[in-house]
Amino acid sequence: MAKKSKRKNTYYFVDEAGDPCFYNKNGQFIVGEKGCSKLLMLGFVETDDPSAIRKELEKVRDKIKNDPYLKDIPSLKRTFKHFHATDDCPEVRQEVYKCLSTLNFKSQFVVARKIEGVFKKYGCNENRFYDKLISHLFKNILHRAEKNFIYFSKRGSKNRQKPLEEAIEHAKKLFEKKFFIKIGSQAFIQSQVPTGEPCLQVIDYMNWAIYRVFTKREMRYYNFIKDKVSFVWDIYDTAKYPRNFYSRSNELDCKKISLL
């Protein structure tokens, strides 16, 4: 029996924080060393009206362009192309987060601690590790709309269309197997760059806030936009299982999560 979708169209914008790297070119395990993150995190923002988000971000960009106090900051050259939380100056970051707090979207995240034993289960293949996280990220939400438009922030120069499609299809199968219900919705997938799709700039900022909770144990950015966060799954925090899911009933707090 197919599960009937409640909504017509839903749009998802997906990006990562951290990296999927585990080893250097000599095969040495380098997680946690300089240039290699301790975790890989994937998240999406979900909205029924991406055009409204794009318009509001453009208003923020216009405000920054016309602010004489900011005009000589070197990083603004990048900011005018697209917002990027890591590179934007604190004044710009504040304006963007203020804007995000007013927008109509929700977000979800899967956080993967980079554990060598887990990575070996995926044949030490970075793409397989990444794609499995995509499946987990989407496995409980694709039944909610008739058509799901999923935009991934482009990774590198290789064509990843087919693996991403397979990861989303696997997400649907995980849901169907768990609930014994056939999903009748469609998924349309494409890769895009943040300069071409402003909504990818939103998930970049949301990722940055969550990432700092885990890596810096810093709550201030998350606390400001936490009403936009529906779900965070610290998937390999086995010490906290089964309380490694964070939602309205179990709010994310750096005091709850295991140290990296």
List the helices and strands and how they pair.
Layout: E1 2-3, E2 7-18, E3 39-47, H1 50-65, H2 76-79, H3 90-100, E4 106-113, H4 116-120, H5 126-138, E5 145-153, H6 161-179, E6 182-183, E7 186-192, H7 199-215, H8 220-225, E8 229-234, E9 245-246
Parallel strand pairs: 1-6, 2-5, 4-8, 5-7
Antiparallel strand pairs: 2-3, 3-4, 8-9
Helix pairs in contact: 1-3, 5-6
Question: What does this 3D model show about the protein?
Answer:
It contains 8 helices and 9 strands. The chain is of the alpha/beta class and 260 residues long. A 7-stranded mixed β-sheet has the order 7-5-2-3-4-8-9. The radius of gyration is 19 Å and the shape is globular.
Helix content: 25-40%
Strand order of the largest sheet: 7-5-2-3-4-8-9
What oligomeric state best describes the polypeptide chains here? Answer: single chain
Strand content: 15-25%
Mean pLDDT: 94
